[in-house]
């Protein structure tokens, strides 16, 4: 069986290219079978046989498709002539539908339109619409649309699609996504109405600090183009222009941070209001792009776990899980009743802990219409919460409350399970932290007045993210925004999209995302195209740092975040870390320069590969000479600096490297196995211990429960990853620092180590075409399993140790993948191909 996919998108989603790359996986292949050719066929159209064995993002085999083209495609694999009798070709794959978007500016005839007087900053969400009449229903109808602000579109009385908070958040001045929907079934002969509600969203709502609104413009606007095709071959286009109208809506206020206010006594039907004209407003069509990754949607519904009564007597709903999304209520009450929903991640002294929200009000208010049963939920906001306080109702039934989980609708690809329930809960916390923060951009946190795409957070977390979910399109699109926001001198802003425009765009570990994130995408997905697209950005960033370091190669200038939120830092000094910022900065300069050299070789820039490889060697030598003593001591002598130096090969002398490993072990033992690293050191500390030959200490540190440790939060009831090791103090009070989030995935980067060392599953070649299976069995663990749905198909491992130390190891490998299997207790690896493989080995007992 062959599974086919085009680019990184979901089937049927509009493509931003007329030459989409194709990928496929092979399931249930017969042992010994291999293909050296593939045939791609357009249903009711041409086919082409291509010689080749690769099945990941292969070039489009036909002439490029024009805008608006729709077709179905299938593939089969084999060798020889497929028409010859007895040739060994697979059956055809299931067909996949492709839809090409509007590729040229001239494809757009519609204009951006905005209400003339409605839709002011505090006026609520306007409805922009038009009426039209059809003599007959079309055989095909496609609605293309986007907005300044966020929108929810309707055709007649039907909501269009499942996406929410569209068009999402991009570098709006340079890149604005549009969406396309097949609306053929929603149209009817006679009168029709098409339109959309417009909300403030990221375009005009509050961002970062109180009062910082209208970051991209002060007027909401809609761009919509409805294209109709009829049975007689005629076409009609209905696009936004000054003939459209605007009217109010039930949404009286909306803001991503502060919430929403809605009067349900007001109608959603635009014809029940007096309407006003709209006017055309400027809008650069060259910005318009189709999305690469999936949209934000409701991805899960969770029932309430329990109803609590606060210390002040209010009703609080506990959903049992810190999540991101909406509270949905089914209510029965008199007209004019006002229901208020406030959100928080944790309780403190029996009440919602609101201080971590800073200025964000995170409050939704509804005035009821008084009908028999009303469903309350917002449209143009989202909240991070586990608890919701609900006031205004005489009574509330637990079955009438649920949480709708929002996030980019990413496909789950990675799993890990162990014999330790606490480690399983930790891993689940990482998953939930990612689900909540991968909401159109990779945000740092989803609850307070921030929710920004901090580059440092995603830089450290990207390998974990790429394993857990298919981020190929999501992060590729975000990287295009990064390149669009990059400064002319190569500086990379600390957040993408960039709304901190006056901040120096050069900080180690944060701005280095320009190089590290595309490198991780290539490792996971073998996406040569992402390196090609991002190469100029990657190179510009390394050149920017080279200009700051000069001939000595040491990065000692400018402000740095350093090892952000080191556990020794005081509550209001998150940058006050043990690690010398210059040591961190220079280490990252060596790391990203090395990755740039590898990228240059991959995309065919041979001279750059040689040049940057030599530069990386020179930076590493300068680091070694300046910051490493002959006895292996690294300047500032803390866990983070040793971890970086060991993992990134920054100590040349073997004896000094061994001594550095011993010193790191001493520091860990001296800290009683507790973590002493911030955002920068945490992702590599366990790897460094393994490189130092102390995997036992890595296991011991991971399973430590005293503060600071990963399992401290688990013991305190955490269901996501915290921003601080001590976001909640042992007495149940909230850390007084301003940086106190209970859903902040950066420290969850440890899951990457768990996948590779506990599950024993790691990539050894781009796209996981080669894998290393090498579980490091330690601590009290008796079994573990890991699974990853790679671009070649599912790969999985499972091991179990008995009370005598005997280990049984199982490995499943898909077609096209080779595995290097290190059986516990065996000195050399075993090389295997596709199929299920069973091994027996031994491991030391704890």
UniProtKB/TrEMBL annotation:
Pfam families membership: Bac_rhamnosid (PF05592), Bac_rhamnosid6H (PF17389), Bac_rhamnosid_C (PF17390), Bac_rhamnosid_N (PF08531), Ig_Rha78A_N (PF25788)
Recorded catalytic activity of this chain's protein: Hydrolysis of terminal non-reducing alpha-L-rhamnose residues in alpha-L-rhamnosides
Name of the protein this chain belongs to: alpha-L-rhamnosidase
Domain Alpha-L-rhamnosidase C-terminal per the UniProt entry, residue ranges: 760-834
Span of domain Alpha-L-rhamnosidase six-hairpin glycosidase: 411-757
Bacterial alpha-L-rhamnosidase N-terminal domain span: 138-300
Top-level EC class as recorded in UniProt: hydrolase
Key words of the record: Hydrolase
Keyword Ribonucleoprotein annotated: no
Alpha-L-rhamnosidase concanavalin-like domain segment(s): 312-406
EC number assigned by the record: 3.2.1.40
One MF annotation (Gene Ontology) recorded for this entry: hydrolase activity
């Amino acid at each position: 069986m062959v599974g086919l996919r085009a680019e990184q998108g979901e089937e049927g989603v509009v493509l931003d290219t007329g030459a989409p790359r194709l990928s496929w996986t092979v399931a249930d292949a017969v042992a010994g079978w291999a293909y050296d050719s593939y045939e791609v066929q357009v249903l009711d159209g041409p086919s082409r046989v291509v010689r080749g064995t690769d099945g990941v993002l292969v070039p489009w085999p036909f002439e490029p498709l024009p805008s608006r083209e729709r077709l179905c495609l299938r593939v089969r694999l084999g060798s020889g002539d497929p028409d010859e009798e007895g040739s060994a070709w697979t059956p055809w794959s299931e067909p996949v539908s492709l839809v090409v978007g509007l590729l040229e500016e001239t494809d757009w005839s519609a204009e951006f339109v905005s209400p003339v007087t409605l839709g002011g900053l505090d006026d609520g969400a306007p409805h922009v619409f038009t009426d039209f009449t059809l003599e007959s229903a079309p055989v095909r109808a496609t609605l293309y649309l986007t907005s300044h602000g966020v929108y929810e579109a309707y055709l007649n009385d039907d909501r269009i699609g499942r996406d929410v908070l569209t068009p999402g958040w991009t570098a709006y001045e340079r890149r604005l996504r549009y969406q396309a929907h097949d609306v053929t079934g929603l149209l009817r002969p006679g009168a029709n109405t098409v339109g959309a509600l417009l909300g403030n969203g990221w375009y005009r709502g509050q961002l970062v600090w109180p009062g910082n609104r209208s970051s991209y413009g002060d007027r909401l606007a809609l761009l919509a183009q409805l294209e109709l095709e009829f049975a007689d071959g005629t076409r009609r286009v209905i696009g936004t222009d000054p003939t459209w109208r605007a009217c109010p809506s039930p949404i009286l206020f909306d803001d991503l941070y502060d919430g929403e206010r809605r009067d349900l006594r007001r109608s959603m039907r635009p014809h029940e209001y007096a309407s006003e004209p709209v006017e055309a407003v400027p809008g650069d069509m060259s910005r318009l792009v189709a999305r690469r990754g999936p949209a934000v949607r409701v991805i899960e519904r969770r029932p309430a776990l329990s109803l609590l009564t606060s210390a002040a007597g209010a009703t609080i709903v506990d959903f049992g899980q810190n999540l991101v999304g909406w509270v949905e209520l089914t209510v029965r009450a008199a007209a004019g009743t006002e229901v208020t929903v406030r959100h928080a991640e944790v309780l403190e002294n029996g009440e919602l802990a609101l201080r971590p929200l800073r200025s964000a009000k995170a409050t939704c208010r509804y005035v009821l219409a008084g009908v028999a049963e009303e469903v309350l939920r917002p449209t143009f906001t989202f909240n991070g919460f586990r608890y919701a306080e609900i006031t205004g109702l005489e009574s509330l039934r637990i079955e009438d409350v649920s949480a709708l989980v929002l996030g980019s609708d990413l496909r789950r690809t990675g799993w890990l399970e162990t014999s330790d329930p606490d480690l399983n809960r930790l891993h689940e916390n990482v998953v939930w932290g990612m689900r909540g923060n991968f909401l159109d951009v990779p945000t740092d946190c989803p609850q307070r007045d921030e929710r920004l795409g901090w580059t440092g957070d995603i830089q450290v977390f990207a390998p974990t993210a790429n394993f857990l979910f298919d981020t190929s399109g999501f992060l590729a699109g975000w990287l295009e925004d990064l390149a669009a926001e990059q400064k002319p001198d190569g500086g990379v802003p600390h957040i993408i999209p960039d709304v901190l425009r006056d901040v120096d765009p050069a900080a180690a570990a944060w701005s280095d995302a320009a190089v590290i994130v595309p490198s991780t995408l290539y490792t996971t997905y073998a996406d040569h195209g992402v390196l090609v697209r991002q190469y100029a950005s990657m190179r510009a960033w390394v050149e920017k740092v080279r200009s700051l370091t000069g001939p000595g190669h040491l990065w000692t200038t400018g402000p740095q975040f350093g090892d952000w939120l080191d556990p020794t830092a005081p509550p209001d000094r998150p940058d006050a870390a043990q690690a010398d910022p210059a040591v961190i900065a220079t280490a990252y300069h060596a790391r990203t320069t090395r990755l740039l050299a590898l990228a240059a070789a991959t995309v065919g820039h041979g001279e750059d590969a040689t040049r940057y490889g030599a530069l990386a060697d020179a930076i590493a030598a300068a680091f070694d000479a300046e910051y490493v003593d002959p006895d292996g001591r690294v300047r500032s002598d803390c866990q983070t600096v040793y971890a970086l130096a060991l993992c990134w090969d920054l100590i040349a002398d073997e004896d000094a490297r061994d001594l550095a490993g011993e010193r790191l072990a001493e520091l860990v033992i001296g800290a009683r196995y507790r973590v002493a690293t911030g955002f920068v050191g945490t992702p590599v500390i366990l790897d460094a211990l393994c490189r130092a030959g102390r995997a036992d200490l890595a296991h011991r540190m991971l399973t430590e429960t005293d503060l600071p440790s990963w399992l401290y939060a688990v013991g305190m009831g955490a269901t996501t990853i915290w921003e601080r090791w001590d976001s909640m103090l042992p007495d149940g009070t909230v850390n007084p620092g301003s940086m106190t989030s209970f859903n902040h995935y950066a420290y969850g980067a440890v899951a990457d180590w768990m996948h590779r060392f506990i599950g024993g599953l790691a990539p050894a070649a781009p796209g996981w075409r080669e894998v290393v299976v090498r579980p490091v069995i330690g601590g009290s663990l008796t079994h573990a399993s890991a699974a990853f749905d790679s671009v070649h198909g599912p790969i999985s491992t499972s091991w179990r140790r008995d009370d005598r130390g005997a280990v049984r190891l199982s490995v499943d490998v898909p077609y096209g993948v080779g595995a290097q299997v290190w059986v516990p207790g065996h000195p050399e690896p075993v090389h295997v191909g596709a199929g299920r493989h069973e091994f027996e080995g031994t491991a030391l007992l704890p």
